[in-house]
Amino acid sequence: MRQRALVFEILRFLIVGSLAFVVDFAILALSVRYLFHVNHGWGLYAATAFGFLAGVVTNYALSVLFVFRSAKASRRSPKEFLVFAELGFVGFLLTEGGMYLGVGVLALNYQIAKVLVTGLVLVWNYLSRKLVVFQPNQPKTKERRSHANSINEASGGIR
After folding, report:
1. What is the DSSP letter of 74?
2. pTM value?
Protein backbone atom coordinates (compact mmCIF):
# COMPACT_ATOMS: atom_id res chain seq x y z
CA MET A 1 0.00 0.00 0.00
CA ARG A 2 1.36 3.38 -0.92
CA GLN A 3 2.22 5.70 1.93
CA ARG A 4 -0.38 8.32 1.02
CA ALA A 5 -3.15 5.72 0.84
CA LEU A 6 -2.07 4.34 4.21
CA VAL A 7 -2.19 7.81 5.78
CA PHE A 8 -5.74 8.34 4.48
CA GLU A 9 -6.77 4.88 5.67
CA ILE A 10 -5.46 5.66 9.16
CA LEU A 11 -7.28 9.02 9.13
CA ARG A 12 -10.52 7.27 8.14
CA PHE A 13 -9.89 4.72 10.91
CA LEU A 14 -9.45 7.53 13.44
CA ILE A 15 -12.71 9.16 12.34
CA VAL A 16 -14.60 5.86 12.49
CA GLY A 17 -12.94 5.01 15.81
CA SER A 18 -13.96 8.40 17.18
CA LEU A 19 -17.58 7.83 16.18
CA ALA A 20 -17.53 4.33 17.66
CA PHE A 21 -15.97 5.77 20.82
CA VAL A 22 -18.80 8.31 21.12
CA VAL A 23 -21.33 5.45 20.91
CA ASP A 24 -19.29 3.35 23.38
CA PHE A 25 -18.83 6.22 25.84
CA ALA A 26 -22.47 7.33 25.63
CA ILE A 27 -23.76 3.81 26.35
CA LEU A 28 -21.24 3.50 29.20
CA ALA A 29 -22.28 6.82 30.77
CA LEU A 30 -26.01 6.17 30.30
CA SER A 31 -25.70 2.66 31.74
CA VAL A 32 -23.74 3.91 34.74
CA ARG A 33 -26.23 6.68 35.41
CA TYR A 34 -29.60 5.12 34.61
CA LEU A 35 -29.20 1.35 34.59
CA PHE A 36 -26.69 0.48 37.31
CA HIS A 37 -26.62 3.70 39.34
CA VAL A 38 -22.97 3.10 40.32
CA ASN A 39 -19.60 4.11 38.88
CA HIS A 40 -17.53 1.33 40.42
CA GLY A 41 -17.56 -2.44 40.89
CA TRP A 42 -19.57 -4.89 38.82
CA GLY A 43 -22.00 -2.22 37.60
CA LEU A 44 -19.17 -0.24 36.02
CA TYR A 45 -17.74 -3.34 34.35
CA ALA A 46 -21.16 -4.36 33.00
CA ALA A 47 -21.76 -0.82 31.72
CA THR A 48 -18.31 -0.91 30.12
CA ALA A 49 -19.24 -4.16 28.38
CA PHE A 50 -22.52 -2.72 27.05
CA GLY A 51 -20.75 0.33 25.69
CA PHE A 52 -17.98 -1.77 24.20
CA LEU A 53 -20.41 -4.05 22.36
CA ALA A 54 -22.27 -1.08 20.88
CA GLY A 55 -18.93 0.41 19.85
CA VAL A 56 -17.77 -2.82 18.17
CA VAL A 57 -20.92 -3.08 16.05
CA THR A 58 -20.64 0.59 15.09
CA ASN A 59 -16.94 0.21 14.30
CA TYR A 60 -17.47 -2.88 12.12
CA ALA A 61 -20.25 -1.30 10.07
CA LEU A 62 -18.30 1.90 9.49
CA SER A 63 -15.00 0.07 8.86
CA VAL A 64 -16.61 -2.00 6.12
CA LEU A 65 -18.19 1.06 4.52
CA PHE A 66 -15.51 3.67 5.02
CA VAL A 67 -12.08 2.53 6.25
CA PHE A 68 -10.84 -0.68 4.68
CA ARG A 69 -12.18 -0.15 1.17
CA SER A 70 -9.28 -2.00 -0.45
CA ALA A 71 -10.31 -5.23 1.23
CA LYS A 72 -12.21 -7.65 -0.97
CA ALA A 73 -15.91 -6.77 -0.70
CA SER A 74 -17.02 -10.26 -1.74
CA ARG A 75 -15.55 -11.68 1.46
CA ARG A 76 -18.14 -9.94 3.67
CA SER A 77 -19.74 -12.67 5.70
CA PRO A 78 -20.87 -13.56 9.19
CA LYS A 79 -17.50 -15.33 9.57
CA GLU A 80 -15.69 -12.04 8.88
CA PHE A 81 -17.74 -10.30 11.56
CA LEU A 82 -17.00 -13.17 13.95
CA VAL A 83 -13.24 -12.74 13.42
CA PHE A 84 -13.69 -8.97 13.81
CA ALA A 85 -15.59 -9.59 17.07
CA GLU A 86 -12.97 -12.07 18.33
CA LEU A 87 -10.26 -9.48 17.83
CA GLY A 88 -12.62 -7.01 19.47
CA PHE A 89 -12.88 -9.37 22.43
CA VAL A 90 -9.15 -8.97 23.01
CA GLY A 91 -9.75 -5.23 22.90
CA PHE A 92 -12.58 -5.77 25.38
CA LEU A 93 -10.24 -7.60 27.76
CA LEU A 94 -7.74 -4.77 27.42
CA THR A 95 -10.55 -2.29 28.10
CA GLU A 96 -11.87 -4.11 31.17
CA GLY A 97 -8.34 -4.63 32.50
CA GLY A 98 -7.52 -0.98 31.94
CA MET A 99 -10.74 0.12 33.63
CA TYR A 100 -9.95 -2.10 36.62
CA LEU A 101 -6.42 -0.72 36.79
CA GLY A 102 -7.54 2.89 36.33
CA VAL A 103 -10.59 2.89 38.59
CA GLY A 104 -9.98 0.00 40.96
CA VAL A 105 -6.25 0.38 41.56
CA LEU A 106 -5.34 3.98 40.66
CA ALA A 107 -8.69 5.45 41.81
CA LEU A 108 -9.16 7.51 38.64
CA ASN A 109 -12.56 8.82 37.58
CA TYR A 110 -14.10 6.17 35.31
CA GLN A 111 -14.47 8.66 32.45
CA ILE A 112 -10.77 9.61 32.57
CA ALA A 113 -9.78 5.94 32.77
CA LYS A 114 -11.96 5.15 29.74
CA VAL A 115 -10.32 7.85 27.63
CA LEU A 116 -6.82 6.64 28.57
CA VAL A 117 -7.64 2.99 27.93
CA THR A 118 -9.18 3.85 24.57
CA GLY A 119 -5.81 5.05 23.26
CA LEU A 120 -4.22 1.64 23.90
CA VAL A 121 -7.15 -0.26 22.46
CA LEU A 122 -7.18 1.98 19.38
CA VAL A 123 -3.70 0.77 18.40
CA TRP A 124 -4.67 -2.87 18.98
CA ASN A 125 -7.88 -2.48 16.94
CA TYR A 126 -6.22 -0.91 13.92
CA LEU A 127 -3.30 -3.32 13.69
CA SER A 128 -5.29 -6.50 14.35
CA ARG A 129 -8.10 -5.61 11.99
CA LYS A 130 -5.80 -4.38 9.25
CA LEU A 131 -3.61 -7.49 9.39
CA VAL A 132 -6.26 -10.16 10.03
CA VAL A 133 -9.71 -9.07 8.87
CA PHE A 134 -9.34 -6.40 6.19
CA GLN A 135 -6.35 -7.61 4.20
CA PRO A 136 -5.95 -6.01 0.77
CA ASN A 137 -7.18 -7.95 -2.26
CA GLN A 138 -4.75 -10.83 -2.44
CA PRO A 139 -5.55 -14.35 -3.50
CA LYS A 140 -5.48 -16.81 -0.66
CA THR A 141 -2.67 -19.38 -0.63
CA LYS A 142 -4.87 -22.11 -2.12
CA GLU A 143 -6.08 -19.73 -4.84
CA ARG A 144 -2.47 -18.71 -5.62
CA ARG A 145 -1.43 -22.36 -5.97
CA SER A 146 -4.42 -23.06 -8.24
CA HIS A 147 -3.58 -20.01 -10.35
CA ALA A 148 0.08 -21.09 -10.56
CA ASN A 149 -0.97 -24.63 -11.59
CA SER A 150 -3.24 -23.32 -14.35
CA ILE A 151 -0.42 -21.13 -15.69
CA ASN A 152 1.93 -24.11 -15.57
CA GLU A 153 -0.56 -26.30 -17.43
CA ALA A 154 -1.22 -23.61 -20.04
CA SER A 155 2.50 -23.34 -20.73
CA GLY A 156 2.76 -27.07 -21.27
CA GLY A 157 4.43 -27.69 -17.92
CA ILE A 158 7.51 -25.67 -18.83
CA ARG A 159 8.87 -23.57 -15.99
Report:
1. G
2. 0.67
